Amino acid sequence: MEKRFGVKDFLLFAVLLMVLISVWLMMFQVDRQWEFISKVEKQIEEQSKDLAELRRQIRVGGTLDNSAQSVDSGTDASWQGFSRLAEVRERKDYARGDWIVEAFSVASPTMTPYIAGDAYAATIQQLVLDTLATRDPETLEWLPLVASEWTASEDGLNYVFKIREGVRFADGRSLTAKDVEFTFRFFMDSKIAAPRVRAYFNRVDSVQARGNQVTFEMKEPYFESFEIVAQMPILAEHFYGKYLESVEQAEVYNTSTNLLFGSGPYRLDNVEDWVPGQTLELVANERYWGAFPGTFSKLIFQTITTDTARLTEFKNGDLDIYGARPLEYRDLLEDKSIVERTHNFEYFNPRGGYSYIAWNQLKDGKPTAFANPKVRQAMTYLTDRQRIIDEIYLGYAVAANGPFNPLGSQMNKSLPTRDYNLQKAKQLLKESGFIDRDGDGVIESEGGQPFSFELTYPSGSDDYKRMMLLLKDSYVRAGILMEPTPTQWPMMIEALDKKNFDAISLAWTAGFEVDVYQMLHSSQTEPGGDNFMNYKNADLDQAIELARGELDEEKRMVHWQQAHEIIWEDQPYTYLTWRKSLAFVDGRFENVRTVRSGLNRGGLWRMPIEWYVTQGQQRYSN
């Protein structure tokens, strides 16, 4: 007998489907309710912390008011760090809210303070962790931040900072002078894997908190003493203190990726579960103590490791800030739709830094070919920087002749830039024992070993890839075989730490005056130090030490210029280029402009963000 799907069957099926849909809706509603309950519980927990902090302040006789709520930041000198932002907030169209969305080109391996060593992590930490002082982005004048005032001895050996009342961490706990003292004790502890930081603070003798003041005593004069102590990111002892209790706890800290907590205007939203490569979300710190809360509700940092993908996201309007490569910049300026919806800028950023190739002189305990300064000089003569500038950077760069900013006074301008010179390079290589011994076109050492090496560089960059091909062609003309080796960022960091590379191409950030101790002093060849190419020169060490200890600027520049002459002769790096910054910013942002320190986007030196979006132009929900 044939079975048919009748009306009764249809009705039963419809009822069953409705039941299933109802069950699914109930489950969805329960999930939403559970999410709502979780948020409410978190808010209650945070409010309880605030009440507990208020009770604690009452017990110790503290003030209940946040100082920031009653201060006139335009007239009170202790709040001058917020004066530029105060002027912006007085505009009639100023509004809080909206997000800034941008992308990092690499996945930073960690955001943990004093462990992270890359510029991307520094960008995040500048928005989460506070310091004692900030700077005016135009005049570069030092201005109060966590410290309301300070004094400095004439000999540069003593600095006393007064901690302002009302500064709180993101959980509501007060920031005190004790936290500043703890921070120094924390990263100077050998259990914490922070040798780079300890190198910068090696001239600080002691840090002591007394009441609401903290005193830094220096072992000897140092020209950057004030900047180092004033810009020390402050850690909360109640949050980080447990990691000094044992070697095991310290190792937890050293291997962490997300232990980022502070008193700044923003906090890491997914601090408990963020892992490298994931999108970073900074949300406004609702307990921020400063004169004004953060303008933007969220700051989003995506990890997009390829140039093409970042460009596509920007063109689609999904990125608000885009640092363009020269070829892209030229093409985008011809795109009417892009120009109409963005601001564009081209400028030499004093902190933008320089690119370089570092020649490793000691690998696996044995000297390499690059241990010979004549070989390093030859490699510089073989590096056609003008061709790199013309063909890859389209003229938006200048050749670097050392680590010192051409805009500053450290640079020894009497030193000529080594231009491409194949014959000079071949002569230096011959004097170093490298000649073609078997007629195959490749030069060999006196022991018969072909001159070949790997040049490690960051993967995902089309500009780097093109530059590597250009360099390979230049080197092979001298009989040198170079194999370009693109490498992911975490592996780059590992290679630097272990010093297990032949040569590596990267970039250093800079400033108007920079201290090259960390990357070029012989003492910094220790594990974790930034002299990762094992370069040692006693004369350079002495010049660096004399410069660091000289407080008189005119005399200090003499020592820096002597150091530059030694670096120029030795070529521990082949210094490549100082590049222009080529940036696009979404047009809905107001008050975007260049200043002496770059763009006035905030973050740098803990400067407040001066941008905003008018109410009618805001794109994202708060």
Given the structure, what is the number of helices?
A: 19
Helical coverage, percent range: 25-40%
Average pLDDT score: 88
What's the Cα radius of gyration? 28 Å
Write the CATH architecture name of the domain at 354-579: Roll
Beginning-to-end CA distance, first to last residue:
65 Å
- Say what the CATH topology of the domain at 354-579 is: Dipeptide-binding Protein, domain 3
Considering the protein shown, what is the CATH homologous superfamily of the domain at 354-579? Answer: Dipeptide-binding Protein, Domain 3
How many β-strands, per DSSP? 25
Characterize the structure shown.
With 622 residues, the chain is an alpha+beta fold. It has a domain at 354-579: Dipeptide-binding Protein, domain 3 (Roll). Helices cover 34% and strands 18% of the residues. The protein is built from 19 helices and 25 strands. The strands form eight sheets. A six-stranded mixed β-sheet has the order 16-20-13-19-17-18. It has a four-stranded mixed β-sheet with strand order 1-10-9-8, covered by helices on one side. A four-stranded antiparallel β-sheet has the order 4-5-7-6. The chain is globular and about 90 Å long.
Short précis:
With 622 residues, this protein is of the alpha+beta class.
Structure keywords:
single chain; 622 residues; alpha+beta; Dipeptide-binding Protein, domain 3; six-stranded mixed sheet; four-stranded mixed sheet; 18% strand; globular
